[in-house]
């Protein structure tokens, strides 16, 4: 009888299929049936032996039945000593036909041809020799193994096997009935569809990826997607790599090449030819160990292509492919012979999943992927077009590296500059001195061209591989340049670490000499006694490091160099050596020019200085992306330059920009002196002096020097957040739908670390409040920050560059630029009259240019306007000359174009930000004067008015964005000259125009950009003061938009303002006031102001009940919010009662399947969980989930939330194993439907961490809880309930890992956070301290734990009751405390009472009950009641085994008579 597959078709280790146990089958055999089974088994054995005898040998020479390469159930080699020879692929591919599989018809699936491929022995990989660092714990190289396994699911198909047959019982029985004899009938066994060959590349750099290779093998084996997995090495033809067998032509075979594409065969094209031969007959792809952002530096750059496969598992030769619309130039469209496309896949779930879907071909579809164009014939083609070599100086090479490398890789390069190099030593540096570095940071050093293979010394003695000097810096003098930027401390540590490794690796006297080199760091006087025989290759690279350490170390380096160069007998006297100074930790003189790799003791040639013949042209000291020097400040012809890769929100360039040359030069010099993200540059000055225009001009002149230029309007924090969210998308960051609380921290961090771009410039324009803006600075980042502000306080927060009025020559130049007929004397008089203020000069110049009015007449008009202003009310916040100059133009508009003036007047109440023309078009009912009303309703008249405004330069018209923008001083002039009645009318008109632009969907992420554009105008126009219902609805929608978008503080501020303003006008019972109150409490609640939210919700519920009735939708909604407040206060029983009332009302009013009813049902079950009624909660959650599946679908967010509730109910009820399996499914659904960054997905990670821990899988639990904690912190900060829950879960996982001090530290942080958030008496705060007490006892602080648990037991009894599961858990832990302190009688008495209550509340087999039972048995044994203790202990272990399994850590601990602890995981509120 054939046993059925095990549950879920996987073995216990998750790596391969297995068969079920007899217990799973539950067969009851009679004697007659047993006899039939024996007879049939004999027949099967006879036929199997016959088939084995007739089976031919495999292609690699091993027999599939009993060859030397035996394989276990996972396909992993048990004996891989014998290697199969390499097998070349046939030159041509055959067309495969369809084949069924897995019980379903697989359309177009390839059919097997010939005998099936055997399961080969797995060939062990050559690895870098294991140095000391290999014993240190390292992070996994493959972080997303489980998601990658899930990404391979499309390939999990089965089809009838051609070689394995199973007994067909039904057919056998039918044969017996028809023929009268028992002859067995067989059917093909189902087997997996495809086999896979993983070809691991050879080459020097592949030593970096040994761990990743092994883990990727494990992922492939554990995915269950392949019939077998063969692993072999790339046969490089040099004898250095071990050859593995790549199978010949097969219709069910895949080939993956795992590589970093750095080896020589990727440079000369031979790898492409081999790939072409494989791709001709079977699906072939390259899996890159490098992240995609490094591919551009490879010798072979994958091209962007659109691919389509004709059928499942079709060979690459049959694929259709064409360049993608965004493919780079040089795509080989006409290459002959015809080329094949081999996909290059990043080792991520998305990359692997896209390749799997392409191979699976469930439906015709195109996939955009990166590919290598390969061809089996023709001459070898260079992967890149050859370019002439461009030798770099060491300084230039260092600057280029700073721009190209990530900060971590550059730091590694600085450390490596101090020592002799090979991959082993680089890995050692990474693990020891820079643990945050990853393998691809080391790979950056190789692919960037920084390091090249060292030719080696043929006369050097043989040394072990980990000690050979295999790498050298590409440019002479580059070591010195890199060391100059490091610190003495880091340089010394690098030397000690490297030479300690070398001394332990190299045997004999040479190893002792290397130990002496290490000791030179602490005792440089040993240089004279150092034996040089055999250590020259290691000593030469370290001399620059000794020189950089200064002082006695420099003298030692000089002596050693002379000994190396001249020998021991003829050592010339030392010459003075100039040394470079580190950035910190050192003293000494600056040496401005880099010292090349000259012989020590010789004086380097002095570099030429500026002004001398041959002096190099100064580039300002900054990294230039294009390598082109900055234009001179007077250059005007640079407008055709392309902007940098990331460019946004920069205003159009002012082509009439004049003067400011010295300011521009000073600004450029300051920005290039060094990183300004610590202390930014600030252009500070009064309004109207042209600070923003100066910044715009600087950006356009130097745009080619930056990779990112982003302009940020900074007057309001909401605007900053909105622009940074857009920047996050432009940088390619994974920010989901773009919530501000996720995207803003992500983009700030990306800029801070310089990934993906290091050379960036952020311009914060009109940043008036330093404290409100500085939180958005990427502190200590590699880029530059420029601020423009009128606030003199920036002098303490930045390096201010004062911007004053024009010099007289600059005023005269601008006036004559606009009005060429002005003579110098007249221009000087105008400039003096206008105070040389650039804004006033520009206004006067435009007026004179547009009107042709003589200057004398203009001066008379100007003086009259100034006199009128002085008589009426001189403006306090801007120069009178500006107001007078503008009033000249405004008077002309009043007479000739009143609609244009009125348009300016209504726009004066908007923010000084761009106003979309969409808001001004097609408006027919705005409360504005008739001339403006006609223009707003007629696009032609509106266009005419805007042209008149633009003619006199009274506003900035941007035709690209179709916006109009007024300077803030123009707005103030306009408002100050209007009478109060007109002000009121125009303000109301502005409000109505804004309300017209309300999209009406604040929760829709597709409308967030529009709400973001409206928000600054809503705030500046004081729309909250309007009584118009449409305007008030806009305000409410903006509040809800900010809340949903993630700007919770902005939502709180506007909601509070709306509530207080409307409450004062309309009273507390008005419906808009109640709506604002609800939104206000939502913001209070999410920001942790629970007491204020509770009090306001109480009052709002009373008012809504009186005003709208107890069963109005809004009343029921606020009832649910009040229940939430009660949960936050820890009153779970009162919250449950409120939600139960609301549930009954919704079910009666709307029916059981209405969405409102289902939402409340979810909350009722949540309350039941919090009160400890898990079974009742489970019943309700299952019913609610079933109804949500019917109404919303099984993958709707609300449906998955309830399914997660089902999992928690099962878990708390003691079904640990089933809950873990179901939680894995929930997390998979979250990831697939909503992405890994969605908050519900992150909550799922935390829930899965708890489930894995309770299932006994502590390694998986600690990984998941750390991930959830990191993501919650990045999104919400440390004081958010979900962050604290993840922190508490992680502290428990760390405790289970054995790191008790760290666990205690994390637990203390969690306890303090809960107390700060909820108060000392909240059940969650008490529960967190229960876990803390366990840490105290395990650290030997039993008395502290006992006292804490005494207090907690009393507090939990008062808060949730004596029989609540959390109270019982605390009692169980207190009994353990008493046991450890020797108070055995008290421990037994407490354990007895706790066990009785726990069994009554949770059940006899619940793990919490079993924990109490373990502790009771331990106490009874110490009291001498051995028989009673043994019976209880045996019963408890049996129940543990039945409930959790024999392998569960809790079962093992109970069997070993160890006391049990109970952990409390806070449930969501």
From TrEMBL:
Residue stretches making up the DUF7779 domain: 893-980
GO terms of molecular function: ADP binding
Database matches in Gene3D superfamilies: P-loop containing nucleotide triphosphate hydrolases, Tetratricopeptide repeat domain
Region named Disordered: 1-22, 47-77, 89-109, 376-395, 570-654
Location of the NB-ARC domain: 661-818
Compositional bias segments (type: Polar residues): 59-73
Compositional bias of kind Pro residues: 380-391
Domain of life: Bacteria
One Pfam assignment: TPR_10
Regions of compositional bias (Low complexity) in chain numbering: 89-98
PANTHER family linked: AAA+ ATPASE DOMAIN-CONTAINING PROTEIN-RELATED (PTHR46082:SF6), ATP/GTP-BINDING PROTEIN-RELATED (PTHR46082)
Protein name per the record: Tetratricopeptide repeat protein
């Amino acid at each position: 009888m054939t046993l059925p597959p095990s549950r879920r078709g996987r073995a216990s280790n998750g790596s391969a299929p297995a068969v079920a146990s007899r217990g799973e089958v539950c067969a009851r055999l009679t004697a007659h049936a047993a006899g039939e089974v024996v007879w049939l088994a004999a027949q099967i054995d006879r036929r199997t032996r016959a088939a084995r005898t007739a089976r031919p040998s495999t292609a690699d020479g091993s027999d599939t039945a009993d060859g030397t390469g035996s394989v276990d159930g996972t396909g992993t080699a048990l004996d891989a000593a014998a290697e199969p020879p390499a097998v070349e692929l046939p030159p041509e591919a055959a067309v495969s036909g369809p084949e069924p599989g897995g019980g379903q018809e697989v359309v177009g699936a390839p059919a097997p041809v010939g005998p099936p491929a055997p399961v080969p022995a797995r060939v062990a990989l050559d690895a870098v020799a294991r140095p000391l660092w290999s014993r240190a714990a390292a992070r996994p190289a493959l972080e997303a193994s489980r998601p990658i396994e899930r990404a391979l699911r499309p390939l999990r198909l089965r089809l009838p096997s051609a070689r394995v047959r199973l007994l067909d019982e039904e057919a056998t029985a039918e044969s017996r009935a028809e023929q009268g004899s028992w002859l067995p009938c067989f059917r093909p066994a189902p087997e997996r569809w495809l086999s896979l060959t993983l070809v691991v590349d050879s080459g020097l750099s592949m030593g970096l990826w040994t761990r990743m290779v092994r883990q990727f093998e494990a992922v492939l084996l554990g995915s269950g997607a392949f019939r077998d997995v063969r692993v072999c090495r790339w046969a490089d033809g040099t004898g250095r790599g071990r050859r593995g067998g790549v199978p010949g032509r097969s219709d069910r075979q895949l080939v993956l090449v795992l590589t970093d594409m750095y080896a020589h065969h990727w440079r000369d094209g031979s790898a492409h030819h081999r790939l072409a031969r494989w791709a001709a007959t079977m699906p072939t792809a390259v899996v890159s160990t490098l992240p995609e952002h490094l591919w551009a530096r490879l010798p072979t750059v994958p091209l962007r292509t659109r691919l389509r496969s004709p059928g499942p598992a079709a060979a690459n030769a049959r694929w259709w492919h064409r360049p993608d619309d965004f493919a780079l130039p040089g795509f080989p469209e006409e290459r002959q012979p015809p080329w094949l496309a081999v996909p290059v896949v990043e080792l991520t779930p998305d990359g692997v999943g896209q390749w799997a879907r392409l191979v699976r071909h469930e439906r015709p579809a195109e996939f955009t992927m990166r590919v290598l164009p390969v061809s089996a014939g023709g001459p070898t083609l260079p992967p890149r077009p050859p370019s002439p070599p461009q030798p770099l100086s060491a300084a230039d090479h260092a600057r280029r590296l700073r721009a190209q490398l990530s900060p971590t890789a550059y730091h590694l390069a600085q450390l490596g500059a101090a020592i002799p190099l090979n991959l082993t030593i680089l890995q050692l540096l990474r693990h020891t001195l820079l643990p945050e570095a990853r393998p691809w940071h080391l790979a950056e050093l190789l692919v960037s061209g920084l390091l090249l293979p060292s030719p080696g010394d043929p006369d050097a003695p043989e040394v072990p591989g980990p000690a050979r000097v295999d790498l050298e810096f590409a440019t002479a003098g580059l070591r010195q340049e890199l060391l100059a930027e490091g610190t003495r401390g880091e340089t010394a540590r690098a030397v000690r670490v490297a030479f300690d490794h070398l001394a332990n690796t190299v045997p004999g006297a040479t190893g002792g000499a290397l130990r002496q080199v290490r000791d030179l760091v602490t005792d440089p006087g040993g240089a004279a006694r150092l034996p040089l025989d055999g250590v020259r290759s290691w000593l030469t690279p370290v001399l620059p490091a000794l020189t950089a350490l200064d002082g006695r170390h420099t003298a030692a380096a000089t002596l050693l160099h002379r000994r190396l160069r001249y020998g021991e007998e003829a050592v010339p006297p030392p010459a003075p050596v100039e040394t470079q100074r580190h950035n910190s930790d050192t003293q000494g003189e600056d040496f401005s020019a880099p010292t090349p790799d000259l012989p020590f003791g010789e004086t380097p040639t002095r570099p030429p200085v500026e002004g001398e013949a041959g002096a190099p042209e100064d580039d300002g000291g900054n990294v230039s992306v294009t390598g082109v020097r900055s234009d001179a400040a007077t250059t005007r012809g640079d407008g055709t330059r392309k902007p940098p890769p990331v460019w946004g929100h920069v205003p159009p360039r002012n082509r009439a920009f004049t003067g400011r040359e010295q300011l521009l030069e000073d600004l450029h010099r300051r920005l290039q002196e060094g990183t300004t993200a610590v202390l930014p540059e600030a252009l500070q000055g009064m309004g109207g002096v042209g600070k923003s225009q100066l910044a715009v001009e600087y950006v356009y002149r130097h745009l080619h020097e930056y990779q990112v230029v982003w302009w940020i309007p900074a007057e309001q924090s909401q605007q900053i957040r909105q622009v940074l969210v857009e920047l996050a998308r432009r940088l390619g960051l994974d920010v989901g739908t773009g919530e501000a609380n996720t995207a803003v921290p992500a983009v700030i961090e990306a800029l801070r670390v310089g990934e993906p771009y290091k050379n960036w410039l952020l311009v914060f324009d009109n940043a008036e409040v330093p404290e409100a803006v500085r939180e958005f600075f990427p502190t200590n980042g590699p880029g530059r920050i420029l601020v423009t502000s009128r606030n003199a306080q920036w002098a303490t927060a930045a390096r201010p560059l004062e911007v004053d009025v024009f010099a007289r020559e600059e005023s005269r130049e601008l006036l004559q630029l606009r009005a060429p007929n002005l003579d110098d004397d007249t221009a000087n008089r105008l400039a003096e009259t206008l105070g040389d203020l650039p804004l006033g000069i520009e206004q006067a110049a435009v007026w004179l240019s547009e009107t042709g009015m003589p200057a004398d007449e203009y001066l008379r008009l100007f003086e009259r306007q100034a006199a009128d202003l002085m008589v009426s009310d001189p403006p306090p916040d801007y120069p009178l000359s500006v107001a007078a100059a503008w009033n000249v133009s405004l008077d002309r508009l009043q007479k000739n174009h009143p609609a244009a003036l009125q348009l300016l007047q209504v726009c004066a109440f908007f923010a000084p930000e761009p106003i979309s023309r969409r808001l001004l078009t097609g408006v027919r009912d705005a409360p504005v004067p008739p001339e403006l009303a006609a223009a707003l309703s007629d696009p032609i008249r509106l266009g005419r008015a805007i042209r008149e405004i633009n003619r006199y330069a009274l506003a900035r018209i941007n035709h690209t964005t179709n916006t109009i923008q007024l300077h803030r001083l123009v707005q103030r002039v306009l408002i100050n000259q209007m009478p109060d009645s007109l002000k009121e009318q125009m303000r109301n008109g502005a409000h109505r125009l804004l309300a017209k632009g309300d999209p009406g969907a604040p929760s829709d992420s597709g409308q967030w950009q529009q709400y973001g554009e409206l928000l600054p105008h809503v705030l500046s126009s004081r729309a909250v003061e309007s009584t118009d219902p449409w305007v008030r609805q806009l305000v409410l929608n903006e509040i809800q938009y900010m809340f949903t978008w993630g700007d919770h503080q902005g939502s709180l501020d506007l909601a509070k303002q709306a509530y207080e303003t409307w409450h004062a006008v309309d009273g507390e019972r008005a419906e808009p006031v109640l709506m604002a109150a609800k939104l206000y409490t939502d913001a209070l609640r999410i920001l942790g102001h629970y007491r204020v939210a509770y009090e306001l919700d109480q009052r709002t519920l009373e008012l809504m009940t009186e005003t709208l009735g107890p069963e109005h939708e809004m009343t029921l909604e606020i009832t649910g919010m009040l229940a939430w407040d009660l949960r936050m206060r820890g009153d779970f029983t009162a919250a449950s009662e409120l939600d139960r009332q609301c549930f009954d009302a919704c079910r009666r009013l709307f029916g059981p399947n209405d969405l409102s009813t289902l939402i409340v049902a979810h909350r009722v079950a949540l309350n039941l969980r919090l009160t400890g009624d898990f079974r009742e909660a489970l019943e309700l959650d299952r019913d609610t989930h079933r109804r949500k599946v019917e109404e919303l679908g099984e993958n709707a967010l609300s449906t998955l939330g309830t399914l997660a509730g089902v999992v928690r109910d099962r878990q708390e009820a003691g079904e640990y194993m089933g809950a873990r399996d179901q939680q894995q499914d929930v997390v998979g659904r979250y990831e697939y439907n909503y992405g890994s960054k969605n908050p519900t997905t992150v909550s799922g990670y935390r829930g899965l961490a708890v489930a894995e821990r309770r299932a006994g899988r502590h390694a998986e639990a600690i990984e998941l809880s750390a991930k959830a904690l990191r993501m919650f912190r990045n999104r919400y900060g440390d004081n958010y309930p979900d962050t604290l829950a993840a922190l508490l879960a992680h502290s428990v996982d760390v405790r289970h890992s054995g790191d008790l001090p760290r666990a205690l530290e994390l637990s203390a942080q969690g306890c303090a956070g809960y107390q700060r958030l909820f108060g000392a008496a909240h059940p969650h705060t008490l529960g967190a301290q229960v876990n803390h007490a366990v840490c105290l006892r395990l650290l030997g602080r039993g008395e502290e734990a006992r006292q804490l648990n005494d207090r907690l037991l009393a507090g939990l009894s008062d808060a949730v009751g004596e029989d609540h599961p959390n109270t019982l858990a605390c009692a169980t832990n207190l009994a353990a405390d008493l046991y450890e302190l020797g108070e055995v009688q008290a421990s037994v008495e407490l354990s007895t009472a706790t066990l009785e209550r726990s069994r009554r509340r949770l059940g006899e087999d619940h793990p919490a009950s079993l924990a109490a039972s373990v502790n009771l048995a331990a106490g009874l044994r110490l009291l001498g009641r051995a028989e009673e203790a043994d019976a209880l202990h045996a019963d408890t272990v049996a129940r543990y085994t039945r409930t959790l399994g024999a392998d569960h850590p809790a079962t093992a601990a109970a069997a070993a008579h160890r006391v049990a602890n109970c952990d409390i995981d806070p449930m969501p509120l």
